[in-house]
Design brief:
It is built from 8 helices and no strands. By secondary structure, the protein is an all-alpha fold.
Length: about 140
């Protein structure tokens, strides 16, 4: 059996990050991403249940889902791509305000400097959402 490593092994959430995640959740900023969670769980049910080793407890099912997300690194790639493009376009606008109009250089620079941290933050958002919707995740896997 192959050993699966987390795509993002360092995903401990700091107190400051937890505060931010709670604010994002309360404001509805995570709603779109959250809306894809149960579809993802359903689509990957077999893989998640393998990780759970047929455990039926809600806690084990949620933990297996968290492990699967850590390995995958996403739940909805089109949304992730659109959100990253939005961030890159924001950076282009900011740099344009500073007089830098080299769009290609700005895109490459953003990707090099920010994409890894953006991805790590996105996975933390997903893990937080899983925790917030734990009973729904467990019910989806138990059905």
């Amino acid at each position: 059996m192959a050993v699966h490593k987390d795509i993002e092994p360092d995903l401990d959430i700091t107190d400051v990050e937890l505060k931010t995640l709670k604010e994002e959740w309360a404001s509805g900023e995570l709603n779109t991403l959250s809306g894809h969670l149960l579809e993802f769980v359903d689509r990957h049910r077999a893989d998640i249940l393998k990780i759970a080793r047929n455990a039926k407890s809600p806690e084990k099912l949620v933990e297996a889902t968290r492990k699967f997300v850590r390995r995958r690194g996403y739940i909805h790639l089109p949304l992730d791509m659109a959100d990253q493009i939005h961030e890159i376009n924001n950076e282009i606008w900011y740099k344009g305000e500073e007089g830098d109009f080299n769009r290609q250089k700005i895109k490459e620079s953003w990707t090099q400097n920010h994409a890894p941290n953006w991805r790590k933050w996105r996975v933390k958002q997903i893990l937080f959402i899983i925790d917030q919707r734990a009973s729904e995740v467990a019910a989806e896997l138990a059905r």
